[in-house]
Amino acid sequence: MNDPDERLVFSGVDNRTDAGLPAWYERTRPDADPVSFAEAVRRLPRATETTVAYKNPYTDEWVSTERFSAVVEPSRLERQADHRQPSTDGGTAAGRGGEAADDPLFHIPTSSYAIINPVDVYSPLEAVLRETAYEGQPLGDLVFGEMRQYRGGGEVHMDIMFDGLSVTLPERSEPITMGLTSGYDFFGNHAVYVEGFARDTACANSIRSLTDRETVRHVGDVADFDVWWEQLLEQVGLLRSDLAAFIEDAQDVTLDLTSVPFDLEEFYSLLEFPDYLATQAATDARANAGDPFAPDMWTLHSGATYALTHAFTGKEGTALDRYVRTANDILFNPEATLEQVQRTYADRAAAETDADGQTGIESQAALAQLERVTDELRDQVSQFEAREARLRERFDMSTE
After folding, report:
1. Half-sphere exposure for 39 (CA within 13 Å, toward CB)
2. DSSP labels for 61-119?
3. Strand pairing of 155-167 and 143-150?
4. Do 395 and 212 form a contact (C-beta atoms < 8 A)?
5. Which residues pair with 177 in a beta bridge?
6. Which of 1, 118, 230, 240 could join 44 via S-S bond, C-beta 3.0 to 4.6 A?
């Protein structure tokens, strides 16, 4: 992913918490100087409204209007008025973002827009973390993660994880740590959102969008975030057991590459990953497969998440979401994955038909071969779709 303007790493809910980063996470952020979650939230830029004006070219005068309001960062307005340069505010910086970090203006909404500042959303979470326990420990002692700022802090995405709240797979010592990912922006593009999230500590792969996205739009009254966070955190434990079951079943479903008309890299290409991501995913899956000629669905999913976590060159947010959904289908809905592979392969074969509309014998044989393999695997993966529907239904019901 594109590097953020700034990255804030946090550990523990507040300064009264004696918490450090897990060793595996510290290795991924060796230069981090973590602060508490509460302090990180308060370091994020906030927004307020101010008057908008337009210039009359005939009189060369500025005319204010109440029809629109500008969404601006108040401390930058103050610095601008004082002709001072913005001061550094700690954290683990990954570049300051240039002029975007100095510009007070975030956005001029064209419709009804209610500002929801980070303290509005995440301060209620602090209280919930102090009051909610996992195996006798407050989640406030276990919380860690990072906040990533883009476009001068007008767009923020964060990973919120809990040390010890994890899935441990058989024959593997490194756990998969559970948590949530959340974010928002002040540009009218991203409502406040939260999704189920996990991080595979063996390879630092981010497993995103484990649940449907829950959102609170920047319109109308601010929601009751205390109850919202309580319900979401309750589901993290349920998601943990469901994820373990999905992975165990996915390890039993293998794709025999000797029986299909494509190699491992082309498998990801048929899922419409760009060539550079398909290459990275195939390399990782091949390296981690028990049998490189017959990788299981968990290994194929892990290859995809490796590529998206460590090689994706696009922007975090919408540009990433489509590939995340495709990667997650490999684990949660293998039948849909196989159908997409078959459909894309058939489309490519059709594009190669000759002038008389005849598909070559080689392509016909390959399509028949792929259809046989897909039919054989379909019976093995039919239970995935039903389980995924139950998981998402339960999560949706709990946050109504």
Report:
1. 17
2. EEEEEEEEEEEE-HHHHHHHHHTPPPPP--SEES---GGGGT--EEE--SS------HH
3. antiparallel
4. yes
5. 166, 199
6. 118
Sequence-distant (6+) residues with CB within 8 A of 377 are 253, 255, 334, 335, 338
Strand 48-56: give its sheet, edge to edge: 48-56, 61-72, 105-107
Helix, strand, coil distribution of the chain in percent, nearest 5: 45, 20, 35
Give the position of tokens 């500025």.
62
The answer to whether the beta carbons of residues 257 and 268 sit under 8 Å apart is no
In angstroms, how far is CA 44 from the centroid of its own chain? 19
Beta-carbon contacts of 300 under 8 Å, excluding residues fewer than 6 positions away, are 255, 267, 285, 330
Question: Which residue in 198, 194, 216 sits closest to 207, CA to CA?
Answer: 198
Domain ranges of the chain: 6-41+116-185+193-216, 48-107, 251-398
Q: How far apart are CA 23 and CA 29, in angstroms?
A: 10
Instruction: Find where tokens 């406030």 sit.
Output: 140
> Would you give per-residue pLDDT tens digits along the chain (400 residues)?
788 999 999 999 999 998 899 999 999 999 999 999 999 999 999 999 999 998 999 999 999 988 888 999 999 998 888 765 544 444 444 434 456 678 899 988 876 778 899 999 999 999 999 999 998 999 999 999 999 999 999 999 999 999 999 998 887 889 999 999 999 999 887 789 999 999 999 888 999 998 888 888 766 555 688 888 998 898 888 788 888 888 988 898 899 999 999 999 999 999 999 999 999 999 999 999 999 999 999 999 999 999 999 999 998 888 899 999 999 999 988 888 988 999 999 888 887 765 455 555 567 778 888 888 888 777 667 666 666 666 666 555 444 5
d(CA 262, CA 366): 9
Sign of CA dihedral 121, 38, 26, 17: negative
pTM for the complete prediction?
A: 0.85
Q: Cα–Cα distance between 40 and 90 in angstroms, integer?
A: 10
